[in-house]
Design brief:
Elements: E1 3-10, E2 18-19, E3 22-32, E4 41-46, E5 57-62, E6 65-76, E7 81-85, E8 96-99, E9 105-110, E10 118-121, E11 133-137, E12 148-149, E13 166-169, E14 175-181
Antiparallel strand pairs: 1-14, 2-13, 3-4, 3-8, 4-7, 5-6, 5-8, 6-7, 9-12, 9-14, 10-11, 10-13
Length: 183
């Protein structure tokens, strides 16, 4: 089964939720006229393309508002640039490209050295008190096993939409690893 991860990630700004399985757009996307097959291609510059593979379904938009959900990764150009086939809109800084390929397992673990709590939820508003909160991970004790979130250990055939998972934390810079496992 394939695994997907962005590797160790950090809470960018405490109190501001970020998607678990997406990457931020860092420059306005450029829509090209055609791929040579009559289908428009968009060049998208992002923080990291490491989560994505050629052929992945992707969506894009601002937090809480996926506005373009019909794209497929056509090419990974570099570690920060990809070409997406099928985006109908131009996307800007402040939006994300979300992995839209379905998986059946998700796992999140805090990193050694964290000092705050992490909150996992199903909306861009996730926090300790938000209704979208589904799990809270506390800072690890020095001698304890690292806290983890793996909600679907018994749901082997359940489809997970990665764009539905968000994380926030109480300390900027606290780190975590988020992993998806496929069908």
């Amino acid at each position: 089964m394939p695994f997907r991860t962005l590797g160790a990630q950090a809470i960018a700004a405490a109190g501001t939720a970020q998607p678990l399985f997406a990457t931020a757009i860092t420059a306005k996307s450029v829509m090209n006229s055609s791929s040579g097959f009559g289908i428009a291609l968009s060049t998208v510059t992002v923080t990291s393309t490491s989560l994505f593979r050629k052929g992945d379904m992707v969506s894009a938009g601002a937090p809480g508002s996926i506005t373009d959900s019909g794209g497929v990764v056509f090419q990974i150009v570099s570690s920060t640039v990809m070409t997406v086939q099928g985006f109908n809109l131009t996307h800007s800084v402040g939006e994300y490209v979300y992995l839209a390929t379905q998986f059946n397992k998700v796992w999140v673990q805090v990193m050694i050295g964290n000092t705050g709590s992490l909150y996992i939820g199903t909306a861009h508003t996730v926090s300790a008190t938000d209704l979208s909160l589904i799990y809270a991970l506390q800072a690890p004790a020095a001698t304890a096993q690292l806290p983890e979130f793996m909600p679907n250990r018994t749901m082997e055939n359940a489809a997970i939409q990665p764009s539905e998972y968000w994380i926030d934390g109480t300390v900027t810079g606290d780190k975590f690893v988020a992993v998806l496992e496929g069908f």
